[in-house]
Amino acid sequence: ASSVHGESGMDGYEFQEVDASTLSSHNAVAAMYDLLINSKEPITLIPIGPLTNIALLLTTYPEVKTQIKEIILMGGSAGRGNVTPLAEFNIYCDPEAAHIVFNSGLPLTMVGLDVARSSTLIHAKLEKLKSLNDTGRMLHQLFSHYRGDDF
């Protein structure tokens, strides 16, 4: 959705160059498996895009379910979609993966498009983000880009 989020998917903030030597040589699913299987306590997964990698994780390595505390996902909608009147982008992109995740038996919280659109972040609170820390400055710049004149 480059028309919404920019070419990088997170336009509005200049990220530092990545040191390629710190990147995992595993694919995303194998990296999540390694992290989960070696964790001393269950981990909450928070996917903010299509659920393909989460579904692949659950079907390839079903033993990790005991290491997943819950899944809090951004996707779906209790109202109108943003791709079609009935489909939200993250679910629309891979409905089979969404089916696997929603039927995984894991505790699941869906934060739908309708919830995101009714965000209560007001201008004054968003301005405070700038002074919190590096993450706050990043979020402020991303929100400024995303919200444009509304900000």
Written account of the structure:
- Helix content is 41%, strand content 9%.
- With 151 residues, the chain is mostly helical.
- Strands 1-2-3 form a three-stranded parallel beta sheet.
- Helix 2 packs across helix 3 (52-60), helix 3 (52-60) packs across helix 5 (95-102) and helix 7 crosses helix 8 (134-147).
- The mean pLDDT is 86.
Spatial strand sequence of the major β-sheet: 1-2-3
- The average pLDDT value, as a whole number, equals 86
Query: β content, as a range?
Result: 5-15%
Number of helices: 8
Characterize the quaternary organization of these chains. Answer: single chain
Shape summary: globular
Uncertain runs with pLDDT below 50, 5 residues or more?
Answer: none
Could you estimate the helical fraction of the residues in percent?
40-55%
Write down the secondary-structure element order. HHEHEHHEHHH
Radius of gyration over C-alpha positions, nearest whole angstrom: 17 Å
CA-CA gap between termini = 20 Å
List the helices and strands and how they pair.
Elements: H1 2-5, H2 28-37, E1 43-45, H3 52-60, E2 68-74, H4 89-93, H5 95-102, E3 108-111, H6 113-117, H7 123-129, H8 134-147
Parallel strand pairs: 1-2, 2-3
Helix pairs in contact: 2-3, 3-5, 7-8
Highlighted features:
3-stranded parallel beta sheet, 151 residues, 8 helices
Brief overview, please?
The chain is mainly alpha-helical and 151 residues long. It has eight helices and three strands; from the N terminus they run H-H-E-H-E-H-H-E-H-H-H. The chain has helices at 2-5, 28-37, 52-60, 89-93, 95-102, 113-117, 123-129, 134-147; strands at residues 43-45, 68-74, 108-111.
